[in-house]
Amino acid sequence: MLAALRLRGWAKAPPAVKRCYSELNAPKAQTFKINSDRLWHDIHHTAQWSAPNATTEAGGLSRLSGTVYDKMARDWFRDQVTALGAKDYHVNGVGAQFATFAGEKDGIPPIAMGSHLDSVATGGRFDGPLGVIGALEVVRSMKEQGIKTHAPIALINWTNEEGARFFPPLGSSSVYAGQNSVAALHASQANDGSGETLGAALHSIGYVGEGPNTFETFPLSAHFEIHVEQQKSLERAGKPVGWVDGWHGISMFELTFHGEDGHANTYDMEGRRDTLVGASKVITEVERLAYSAKGRSTTTNIQSGPVGACNIQSWTKIVFCVMHPELAALEHMGRTAEEKARGIASEHGLGMEISRLLHLEPGTFWPEAVDCVKRACGDRGMGAPTLTAHDSTMTTLVCPTASVFARAKDGISHCAKEWSTQEDCAESALVLGKAVLNFDQLLKDGA
Amino acid sequence: MLAALRLRGWAKAPPAVKRCYSELNAPKAQTFKINSDRLWHDIHHTAQWSAPNATTEAGGLSRLSGTVYDKMARDWFRDQVTALGAKDYHVNGVGAQFATFAGEKDGIPPIAMGSHLDSVATGGRFDGPLGVIGALEVVRSMKEQGIKTHAPIALINWTNEEGARFFPPLGSSSVYAGQNSVAALHASQANDGSGETLGAALHSIGYVGEGPNTFETFPLSAHFEIHVEQQKSLERAGKPVGWVDGWHGISMFELTFHGEDGHANTYDMEGRRDTLVGASKVITEVERLAYSAKGRSTTTNIQSGPVGACNIQSWTKIVFCVMHPELAALEHMGRTAEEKARGIASEHGLGMEISRLLHLEPGTFWPEAVDCVKRACGDRGMGAPTLTAHDSTMTTLVCPTASVFARAKDGISHCAKEWSTQEDCAESALVLGKAVLNFDQLLKDGA
User: Fold this and answer.
1) Hey, of B63, B260, B284, B298, which one would you mutate to test binding to chain A, going by the most A CBs within 10 A of its CB?
2) Which residue intervals of A17-94 are DSSP H helices?
3) Mean pLDDT, rounded, for B128-140
4) Which residues does B53 contact at the CB level (< 8 Å), separation at least 6?
5) Which spans are transmembrane here (chains A, B) (predicted)?
6) What is the rounded average pLDDT of the residues B209-232?
7) CA of A295: how far to CAs of A88, A326, A331, in Å?
8) Which residues 234-263 in chain A show a CB within 8 A of chain B?
9) Tens of pLDDT along B248-277?
10) If residue A357 lies in a helix (H) or strand (E), which one and from where to where?
11) I need a surface site. Which of A108, A337, B6, B366 has the fewest CB within 10 A?
């Protein structure tokens, strides 16, 4: 499990790069274009690698990490970067794919663009393939337009960002940022209680490489990522793109109640130690808490036993998360949920274990990286926070990081209905490319 | 699934046997004895055939139907009845084991004693092995004491009474009583959603025989069963044994909520269609209902998805049961639970499917069979209702049936702590044997 992260905006002071809060884009960025049709084609072409189920039939994506569908998408990514002439391609110890393209000056760490090709079980086609395929499109277009950057460029497909099949989420990027070890990530457990691990799944698809795995062994000058917004800010404002000015805090908890076995029909109501009743009360309290604290909350997993037709449930495990833009309120939500759970445990005579699996404090990205995105957006964009974690909320712990939002239809995500138009996807890739070129200019000027 | 059973005390009028409400036991019953040590030994000897888990370690039993442990216990039963000289032994089409021992008059249907060797996942050693092994002990003792009955005697190990691995419960006895078909029983689905079926499991352990499967093709003169009480009536009254004068009603429901996929962190609280929140509210309402209706209720199973770390739950399925001694109140509980669920579905914008999987109306056993048990108990026993269903609540639909209670420590059942003393087990077997001899005398006198 990811040891309770306590992340702020960044873990160390930003490096001494020359800041350039110009209103203008760098010269190379001003003329940069991308191929909208090619990007759109690839988003939908790669969506074929999806588990066949109701989500796929509805036009969504079901590509859990470490599955054969994940392998197919990974192989495609490898083939694309190889064909594009990457000077280096490697898979690291936790399955992340890194492709590096030469710059004019190869002694400096690359500027990276990355996201993830895995999805949740009932996901859409954009979170996070848009971030990977958009980045690929930027490199393709740069090559076609004869744009050579000062710094090398890296394209990254991060492993198990979603945590949908194996917990924790933010898999390889958390290892990259020093928040988790390779061994711990390999031991990531299946959410369905089957006992499968991410490490075994990655081995089974041939995606455990030699490394390097961390910022220390593979430093980046910066990391940029496109993501669908997953909220309605851009849509409401009529803006196709945005710069992400920070993220809301998230705490995830695993709660297990231990009761006592007993006969479902014959046991007196008084004296029961029914864990499913207890867990149900916690779930309704956790939902109420979101309204009273003006935050958000979700119970995302429940497992209960013994499985059968005639038993009081003697153990129930739930996973829930609370979200808030303010740290004090976030921590208050977590404490309140735990207190409510303890009260319910006491009322029903239950044993209780609770652990905070993940704690991401609210924070902001690096101002000079955000500024590069902001200039790339111009008046077509606006600032908005992200309400969840991404690979960029890990890379920002170790290197200048910023993120680009693409407008999302109705703010829907993690659903087959997730949608961004061709135009909005293209504009987000254009902003990504311009932001990288802006940052590249900063490096050139400041180095 | 078992098509909503609507059972009353019996489905047709009791046959025209001569009633004999004597205070005395039949002559053969008056001297009958059983071997307490042998019975106690076999209860614990056979408990070795249990899945190795925490229940087994705690002295309980985990012998789910159709598993290798079930096969081992079945093989032992087959060997015992064969060694005892059964004139007929067969396995029927749904795995029930029938052994028949000759009487003085072989043209009449046998008097049966039976129960089940399967247990719930976290069960005890007595429910229902005591019923099978106690019956076996009666036949052994009769043989040793040279007691020959008028009617033949049948020993029965019924299949999947518990419904713990595969739904519905009361497996082979429901087929015997014409409440379910062989094909439907083979199609019984695994409660864990794995898609496994009872039929495939029975085939895998070699326990699908040729039949006969029903009362029509294998009639019984009567059916008697020992069961641990699963309540505290006998314990409170200081009685080691009891006659079961009837059963409480049970309705089981399967409820599925359909909502919408969405991101756990980013989706606005307003507008969510969170099925797990909805199901949790139903579970707490179902619990409350037991108190307000002065009945009982339990939610016995929950499954929810999509499985993952970051998704609002878009489908949740629960199974719950309500119990009451009075039919009108039972049906009111069922209707109220359904109304509450519809209100919650409406509040959360959920689609809902509900079906009543099983409906057992409260009823009573056959008076002349109960009287045989009552006389066998004498002043050592008392009458008490059972609060759940047994194989006998199926056989009573087609033939005179009664049941013997053994005192249970603290009324605990479906738990490793389930316990009856050696003395109480022995006394229940003695009552079983005497009751059979009493009924045999009725048959002899009345035939």
Assistant:
1) B298
2) 27-31, 36-46, 54-57, 68-83
3) 98
4) B62
5) none
6) 97
7) 44, 9, 11
8) 248, 250, 252, 260-263
9) 999 999 999 999 999 999 999 999 999 999
10) strand A351-360
11) B6
* CB neighbourhood size of A45 (10 A): 12
Q: Give how far the C-alpha of residue A36 lies from the chain's centroid of Cα atoms, to the nearest Å.
A: 24
How confident is the model over A199-214, as pLDDT tens digits? 999 999 999 999 899 9
Helix A327-348 vs helix A275-292: crossing angle, to nearest 10: 150
ipTM of the complex: 0.92
CB B64, CB B121: distance < 8 Å: yes
Q: What is the homologous superfamily of the domain A27-248+363-446 according to CATH?
A: Zn peptidases (3.40.630.10)
Contact indicator for A348, A230 with CB cutoff of 8 Å: no
State the pLDDT at residue B12. Answer: 41
Question: What average pLDDT does chain A have?
Answer: 94
Q: Do A284 and B287 touch (CB under 8 A)?
A: no
Q: Which of residues 260-279 of A touch B (CB under 8 A)?
A: 260-269, 274, 276-277, 279
Asked whether residue A56 carries a pLDDT value surpassing 70, the answer given is yes
- Whether the CA torsion B19, B20, B26, B27 is positive or negative: it is negative
Note the CATH architecture for domain B27-247+364-446.
3-Layer(aba) Sandwich (3.40)
How many angstroms separate the CA atoms of A318 and A302, rounded? 4
Kindly report, residue by residue over A388-442, the tens digit of the pLDDT.
999 999 999 999 999 999 999 999 999 999 999 999 999 999 999 999 999 999 9
CATH code, A249-360: 3.30.70.360
pLDDT, mean of residues B328-357:
98
Could you state, in order of their start, the residue ranges of all structural domains in chain B?
Answer: 27-247+364-446, 249-360
Which among B305, B311, B413 is the nearest to A266, CB-wise? B413
Structure-token pair, residue B212:
């006969």
| pLDDT band of B11, cuts 50, 70, 90 | very low
Structure tokens at A81: 């970067």
CA distance B445 to B372: 14
A5 pLDDT more than 60: no
Mean pLDDT of B332-345: 98
Helix axes B36-46, B422-446, angle to 10 degrees: 110
| Dist. CA A401–CA A113, nearest whole Å | 10
Predicted local distance difference test score (pLDDT) of residue A211: 87
Task: Return the structure tokens found at B365.
Answer: 């056993």
Q: Which of B135, B224, B225, B136 is nearest to B442 (CA)?
A: B224
Query: Average per-residue pLDDT in chain B?
Result: 94
Q: Comparing A5-9, A173-177, B313-317, which segment has the lowest mean pLDDT?
A: A5-9
- Which of B250, B262, B413 faces A415 most closely, judged by CB atoms? B262
pLDDT value for A4: 35
Residues 143-202 of B with CB under 8 A from A: 162-165, 167-169, 191-192
The set of residues, in sequence order, having a beta carbon less than 8 Å from that of B183 and lying 6+ positions away, is: none
Amino acid A22: pLDDT: 57
